[in-house]
Sequence to fold (196 residues):
Amino acid sequence: MKDRLMILDLDGTLYDTRMVNCKAYQKALEEFHIELDGEYFCTECNGQYYKQFLPVIAPELTESDMEAIHRRKQALYSECLPEASANELLVDIIGLARPRFYTALVTSASRKNAEEILRYFGHLELFDLLLTQEDVSKKKPDPEGFELAMKYFGIGPDKTVIFEDSVSGIEAARFCGASVCRVMDYISEGKRPADE
Fold:
């Protein structure tokens, strides 16, 4: 019987998506004649909400420009998925935990992009619940997403463990009182399992 909850972040925790997001944003920004430095994006922007980093990259962008760029990035995301790699050890941990733990993915990514990468790696069935940017009104470090997941399953923070990599995600996890496992780095066994 399941009586515990495991919550995971997507970008930087379950998958290394730095180059996926970078290339998708580079292509989207090119359409607006804006050049995006890949190294800068990967170190300073990846994992952040687009309304936080786009004004820094290009202060001249209007609100509607940012929305248009974000929509194009989402459309281009699937083309860039071969750049992603999975945290296979964490995937194994999820599989081992599932008999006793409910599993939830809580991400700032769009539902479209989250489902695309989960399908790409064949991991969609690993999760009992997906909460994406469309499901929350407040972004991390606000704990809203984590709290919604706990409420959905009726499981308190004392029986919840959260896997996160970012400072804002860890702060959100601590705010809700759950146990936190920080993913600092991982070695990928390669790209998509089907390609092996």
Remarks:
- The two ends are 35 Å apart (CA to CA).
- The domain at 18-82 is CATH 1.10.150 (DNA polymerase; domain 1).
